[in-house]
């Protein structure tokens, strides 16, 4: 993932202020452009950390939450035929898709912290986060899809590409 200044550009005080601001409930804000930038930076930071993780550790051994089994089983019951290797944005964002995703996501309210926070998700799991390969999704959608990708071997090529042959 291409590194930019990210949170480092804010400095310690700015990053601390951003973290405090992001912990407040959404109702405390209007459409503040600075807040949107902070959310984007937080989502980018999360994406960068995750991509570095699956590039460094065999993804089939990763545990992303305390309830990975529950998330994976529910996801595959609800979305048995979803192509997780190459996601179609309409399968996440269309009106029909949103109606199907809503009950899936809401079952994790109180189970997965910040289950409905915005997160970046790669469309093609064999590629890095880029503008063309990234979609905005909820955290539980990210967890569901990435847990499935890890368990079903779809993220393994990312790890293999970064691992020197032995």
From TrEMBL:
A GO CC term attached to the entry: cytoplasm
Polysaccharide biosynthesis domain boundaries: 35-158
Protein name: Polysaccharide biosynthesis domain-containing protein
One Pfam family cited in the UniProt record for this chain: PBDC1
Superkingdom: Eukaryota
């Amino acid at each position: 993932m291409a590194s930019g200044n990210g949170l480092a550009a804010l400095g310690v005080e700015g990053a601390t202020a951003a973290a405090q601001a992001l912990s407040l409930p959404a109702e405390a804000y209007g459409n503040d452009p600075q807040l949107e930038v902070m959310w984007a930076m937080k989502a980018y930071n999360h994406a960068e950390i995750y991509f570095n993780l699956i590039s460094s550790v065999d993804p089939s051994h990763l545990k992303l939450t305390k309830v990975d089994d529950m998330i994976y089983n529910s996801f595959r019951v609800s979305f048995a035929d979803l192509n997780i290797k190459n996601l179609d944005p309409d399968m996440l964002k269309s009106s029909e898709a949103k109606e199907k995703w809503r009950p899936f996501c809401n079952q994790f309210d109180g189970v997965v912290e910040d289950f409905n926070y915005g997160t970046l998700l790669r469309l093609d799991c064999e590629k890095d986060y880029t503008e063309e390969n990234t979609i905005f999704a909820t955290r539980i959608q990210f967890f569901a899809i990435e847990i499935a990708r890890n368990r079903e071997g779809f993220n393994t090529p990312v790890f293999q590409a970064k691992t020197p042959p032995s």
